[in-house]
Each structure stands twice: as structure tokens, then as C-alpha cells.
Amino acid sequence: MTETARAWSALGGDPALLPRVTAVERPGVLPARLGVRGMARACVGVCALAAAELAARRAGLAEVPAVRVDDGAVATAFVSERHLLVDGRAPVSFAPLSRFWRTADGWVRTHANYPHHKARLLTALGVPDDPEAVAAALAERSARAVEDAVYAAGGLAVALRTPQEWAAHPQAAAVAERPLVERARLDDAPARALARVDGDPLLPAAGVRVLDLTRVIAGPVATRVLGLLGADVLRVDPPGLPELPDQHADTGFGKRSARLDLASGRERFEELLADADVVVTGYRPGSLDRLGLDPRALAERRPGIVVAQLSAWGAYGPWGDRRGFDSLVQVATGIASAEGTGERPGALPAQALDHGTGYLLAAAVLRALTDRSDAGGSRSVRVALARTAQWLLEAAPDGAAEGEEAPPDPWLTGTDSALGRLRYVLPPVTFAGGPYDWSRPPDPWGADAARWD
User: Is 246 a catalytic residue?
Assistant: First the structure.
């Protein structure tokens, strides 16, 4: 079974549609020991196929449009944050304290891009904001002790593990019990058929209202895809927790951005929910449940809703309530060890867990919309970076990276925006008759009203 077929099966897709997907393979892109290129191609391929399937349904087409996945477009999109320019300025992907550090018995990786995570890291270590002081403190401690102490303080640090060490961890066991994409029907809400669409380009998600409660990369990548496909995507963030500006610029295409406190602004949120088709959440598992934002509670108030959830480690097991990021999941699951040199841990050529999981989540939403149109019911879909990591570790290697890496120029373009002149990566999700670019550039973070267009 190919990785595309494996992912399509996890989404509940009809295997008869797989021949609609063809690929332009470029062996020089995303070079790694693990099968990153095949995994990335599969994630984008099934997302495009799910979009084409929904487009055919809504447009009354006799055949699902053909999907063509180009490895060059995929590889460029998987490092979209590296190609972004804002008025000619390149963003910084990682803060100085987000990196690998030597410990007394190995390696640890920290994540301190956000100010509150940086503050908690420094508090846990009892040192000032100085890389040399951090290095000295970490060199005196074991990697596992650092992991425990920093997480206890609300920060982020993960000890380097081999794939075998991760496989023996209770969280790995919990992750292994789950499918790549968790899907559930929540109730017997009547089928909610979406209106017919036509036109050029064909927008399969036109008229679909998406409440985007995600941050960082994976979740915003998913909702960026839905925006590309015509959905009215409204990203909602807490007023006191701004997104990193460059990260927002990269993932904000095709959507609007509003600020709303979900506790004090509960009435406004319920008004938004009353007209929503999809809610996508990407916060730490359980953190939104107290606000009535778990899937079943949302379905009770909005029958027929599609609830999509994303987490780092999975919403189960001993690490089910932990925060996490792509770089940390790579370290914990053994990917960084597998990609290392023996002297030092390594990393994938892209934040492939984030991007891949984002496209999987968008595909799951699109398939849920198709299934809901047929059989009704509120729907829940759930993915986790750690489960995507397990898939990658189990996947066949890509083989030798023969040939040159494809230059990114064919998949880069530019536009003026309220943020300045942007150079950005064109979307890799394409199908015959579908869109090839977003209809709107990103707005400044929190600049839009919390209401539907």
C-alpha cells in the first residue's frame, strides 16, 4: 500500500478514487533518511483528492476532477515560512533559546519562541535570559530531569530519545493504539446538503463557515487550505495572546483574524457558533472543555457541526495534556535521533509533522463535509503530530535523493497586503478546475470584527 493509499484509507475515502491522483516525482527534494518526501506527497495528495471529491459532489460532476501533485510544489510549501518575505525582510523561524542543548547525559531541545514559554523555561532553570547561562545550567542536569522540571513550570523541553526508547514510552503505546486520523459520528443530526457550486475556479468549500481556534503552524495550515477552497474562515485569538507576526503572515492567507475572549465574550462566540459549519481547535487537549468547546458539547448546541481537533501528543495517555511543537515531537519520538549524525541530533528538512498534519486535518474536514451531506450527523475528526510521526517512522524510506533539488521559483509569487509587500508560496493543493491561489492576503492579527461576512 502506498503512503497516499494509507492516508486516504485513514480518511475513510473510497479507494476507487485513488487513480485520480498522479504525481510529478522529484527525488532531489526534502532529502532525509526517513520517507519525508513520500509522506508529504501523500498528505497533500489526499487533501487535494478530498477537495476534488467534494467539488464533484457540489457541482454535480459525473467524475471527480483529476489531482496532480508536484513534489516541487509540496516541498516548497512544507517550508513556506522560510520563503516568506515581508517588504523584503525574511522572518526568523526560531528564537535563540529554541534549540538543542547538551545535558549531563545527552541532549535536550527547548522551545521558547513565545515570550511566556521563554519566561517559564528561564524560571524552571533559575537563570537569566542569557544563552551561556542556559547552556551551563543544562550541562549540569540530566535530559529527563530537565524535561520534567521545565514541563512542571509550564515551559517546553524534551529529552532526545531513540525510536526504540520512544516505542517503550507509555505515550508511544497510547499513540500506537489510535488511527492516523480519528473519525467519529457524534449524533443523528439530519443531513445538511451544501448548496450547488459552479464557476471558475471551482470552490468546493464555498459558503462553509469555519471557526478557526488554532495557533502556530499545523492548525493554521489546515484552515489556510480551507480558505483557499472558498470557506469563510474566521480565526479567533485571545486578546492577550498575540500570534508571532511572521507566523501569522505565512498562515493567514484566505482568512480573517479577530480577537475575542471566549470567557467574557461567550455570547458573541455562541452567535458565531450558531452559523458555523466547522470548528477547528488546536489548543492543548482539554484546555477548551471548560468553555463547552469539546466536540459533543458543540454538537449539542450546533447539530451537524464538524469539529476538527489537533494536538501535539494526542488527547490521551500520560502526555495527553502536554503542550508541544513539531521540533519537540521530532526529538521525543526518535526522528531527531534517526536524522542525526551520531555526534549530534538532527532534524527533518522541514517542519513536516506540522505541515503534513495540517493537510491531513484539512482533508479530514473536507471528507467529513462530504459524509455529512450524504448521511447526516455531527462529525468529529482528530489528528496528532505524534501520530503523524509514528506514520513517518513506519513508512518506507524515499530512497536515494538523486538529482538536484527543485528551485522554488515556480511556486513563489507576491502580493501587496496590509502587512506590506509579501513574497509567499503558492498552495500545493490543486485539482482540475480548482483554485491556484488564495483570494485574499492575510489581514493584520486581530484586525477584523468577530462576525461572519
Answer: no
